[in-house]
Design a protein that fits this description.
about 30% strand, single chain, alpha+beta, four-stranded antiparallel β-sheet, 1 helix
Length: about 80
């Protein structure tokens, strides 16, 4: 087992079902970030050349519950 310290950042949290996690992740990158007023800290989703400032996380709860957590900054455009 490896210990990893998650940096303190602002997280956007998206509740969903376990079967929806992949779809939610794609919609965050392709839809939500474009109109949200937030910028994803991680880049390279579209090219596969990821540059990560914090981990994207999936949190699985009871039964079919899940959440997708992505690190964000307020967009200053």
């Amino acid at each position: 087992m490896i210990e990893y310290t998650v940096p303190a950042v602002t997280w956007a949290v998206f509740p969903c079902n376990r079967t929806e996690v992949s779809d939610v992740e794609m919609r965050i990158v392709n839809e939500w970030q474009l109109t949200s007023g937030y910028k994803l800290l991680n880049t390279g989703y579209d090219t596969g050349e990821m540059k990560s400032q914090a981990p994207d996380m999936e949190v699985h709860g009871q039964d079919d519950e899940a959440e997708v957590w992505v690190a964000v900054n307020k967009d200053k455009r």
